[in-house]
Amino acid sequence: MSKKIVIVGGVAAGPKVAARARRVMPDAEITVIEKSNIISYAGCGMPLYVSGHVRKLDELVSTSYGAIRNKDFFLNEKGVKVLTGTEALSIDRENKKVLMKDLATGVESYIEYDQLVLATGSTPINPPIEGLNLKKVFKLYHPDDAVALKEFLENADVEMPVIIGSGLIGMETADALVGKKLFPTVVELREQLLPGILDPEMAASLKTKLEDMGMEFALEHTVQKLEGDEDGNVTGIVTDKGTIDADMVLVAVGVRPNVELARKAGLTIGETGAIAVNEFMQTSDPDIYSAGDCVENTNIITGRKVFVPLASTANKQGRIVADNIAGKKSRFKGILGTAVLEIGGINIGRTGLSEQQALDAGFEIATAANANHDRTHYHNKHGQMILKIISDAKTGRLLGAQGLGKGDVIKRIDVLAAAITFGATLEDFYNIDLGYAPPFSTPIDMAAHTANTVRNKIDGLTASVSARELKEKLERGDDFVLLDVRTQQGYQSRHIEDKRGMLIPLHELRYRLSEIPKDKEIVVLCAMGGRSYEAACTLKGAGYNDVKYLETGFEGWPYDYD
After folding, report:
1. In the predicted model, what is the mean pLDDT of residues 429-451?
2. What span is annotated as the signal peptide, if there is one (predicted)?
């Protein structure tokens, strides 16, 4: 007798369960219940549709060979029955059936299951502020939202776009607007953009680069209400620090897991507020599985429960669920929270623990940030990047990494994610046999070079300061020497104007050591950190005991001191 598999949810995890289950269980009876009329769509591609990089919405619901993933596609190519426009209302666990409702007719009926899969996803958070129902206020979660936003942008004269929230959706939509020569103001409750993605100094560097493109940021602003005119159109955002004019608003302050169906069925809800599952993706009922944006995950490094909704995770979990329903005993081992995005041609990525997360987890950490080229400087496609690595100071174990720049950041983040997953140390990482040719890398890849920088700090070879730490030293009035080792030309292009500053180009340093006091702390800086590191080593070798260099140099310096 064939198994009856019922899947609630038809966006990412649900269709993946159905497709994999059909391959490994040819005789199974598989039904997908989906509230919307659009299924298996690429939600991550919606900002690209808004920007125009994806020309037709059908491209977000089609296969690589052009077939539209609708219910006929699933029935004809997968042998899977999909009930669109249908809502799952409740679960009768004792009798193993789901009460569902046809939203067009209002007719309710039951469907029986042997195994049930909850892939109910998540819902955008609507903050408790007045004015969200005004015209020209948008969200970007469902394809219908993307169509509405794109049509508005193509037909309206927008001059003052505002985005509330600087997470992934908010910043990816900002990128879509920049591509249309619209430069939004991003309003964020926290003190930095991309909170939870980047460490503060990385976010500050990114903010400076995006401001150079024309974007504006209102950080640490609490939105109180949205104002509108007599026609009901939004005209401004009122925050605790003033009013920001707006002729369109996108609200993107995060999502919450859809757990109500599971909660009503008496399934265990985890500490994060998402559905609790084991390594086999089973809920507290062994015949009910769950996957995707509605479940909590385990962080591979800390073992702690986390809620990090990502499409990549949802698809991987879908395969795991199908395998276990088929009796294959596949395990989902957890996540690192790897996330990547592009804004205005700047590639951004992170994996593993942030610096604060590592500290909160009880690690004694060593970190380093490095600015350099992604490939040989003489190759015409080279691009600059900033890469940061966080490690365990005692064992050298890799804990996390972040990067940004116009170079190939994502390649490095992916390689580091693999290394972290398998428990690599800084030394292990340096010894990975990475590919080299001038169009792709430098002889020692930037990621390996950054790992070596952390090792040098642990070994006591050199010390460094971050941009934030140097800024704090300047503001406190610390007594130190700020030694710039660039050429006169580089110094004139940009420098920190301060009475503690000195300019001695690196090629002159060995012959001018007598000009530098030995009884003071020396902080060395240059364009990207390479020359200042060399200078710090030279000074230390000459008997200077308190020498540090500025990590990432001016490439990562986001402050106005020049």
Report:
1. 95
2. none
